Amino acid sequence: NAGVTQTPKFRVLKTGQSMTLLCAQDMNHEYMYWYRQDPGMGLRLIHYSVGEGTTAKGEVPDGYNVSRLKKQNFLLGLESAAPSQTSVYFCASSYVRTGNTDTQYFGPGTRLTVL
Amino acid sequence: AQSVAQPEDQVKVAEGNPLTVKCTYSVSGNPYLFWYVQYPNRGLQFLLKYITGDNLVKGSYGFEAEFNKSQTSFHLKKPSALVSDSALYFCAVRGPSGGYQKVTFGTGTKLQVIP
Q: CB of B49 within 8 A of CB of B32?
């Protein structure tokens, strides 16, 4: 099992450009998440999904969109990148057991710089 | 609102000495508590969790954590530190069971084990 993979690993964008980050998991997990990690702020939840075809806003959703067309994939889009979106982005997934979310499995991260 | 506090940005300990990384939390109801570790340029990895039962939880790599309800704490411990334990450690909490529950992460504590 590859676990949770993220594409790309690194990216540099200019202000106003758009891009999509891809997350894939092969563990058949129902729940998937996108976080951003900034120094001194820990992980902040951007968006999450509780199943195929569903998405919901997290703590810091502005400037981002997501889609979960297939259970194994969760895409994070930046329509018009801003320097404030310079961060490390982590995708995670977890399975649902008796209606509860459990341990999260993280991808290796995408380091995004917006100039 | 739930929250997690990791009062120390950095902890230094000599190899072979016991280590403690502190975490306190605030949540309505009984908490689900987690510790994750992040090695440089990697995603977070699950170490251990407390759901219910024994207050002392044992996890991966010889780590353990003690749940103290009266002090709302969940400190991470290891009897004898290794240089390879040097990493960033995150405490996380979520509320009681019942549908999707957001996980809140602390800001992280950098552990440095000195040879």
A: yes
| Cβ within 8 Å, pair B100-A4 | no
Q: What residues contact residue B81 under an 8 Å CB cut-off, 6+ apart?
A: B13, B14, B15, B16, B17, B18, B19, B111, B113
In angstroms, how far is the first alpha carbon of chain B from the final one?
Answer: 41
pLDDT at A100 over 80: no
Residue of A nearest to B91 (CA): A42
Contact of A109 with chain B, judged by CB distance below 8 Å, is answered with yes
Q: Are A102 and A38 within 8 A, CB to CB?
A: no
Cis peptide before A8 (omega within 30 of 0): yes
Could you tell me if B78 lies within 8 Å of chain A, comparing CB atoms?
no
CA closest to B5 among chain A residues: A42
The C-alpha atoms of residue B16 and residue A87 are separated, in whole angstroms, by: 35
Report CA Rg, chain A: 13
Q: What is the pLDDT of residue A40?
A: 82
Which of B41, B99, B106 lies nearest to residue A42, judging by beta carbons? B106
Average pLDDT, chain A: 92
Instruction: Collect all residues of chain A within an 8 Å Cβ-Cβ radius of residue B33.
Output: none
At B82, list the tokens: 């290794």
| Confidence at residue A70, expressed as pLDDT on a 0 to 100 scale | 96
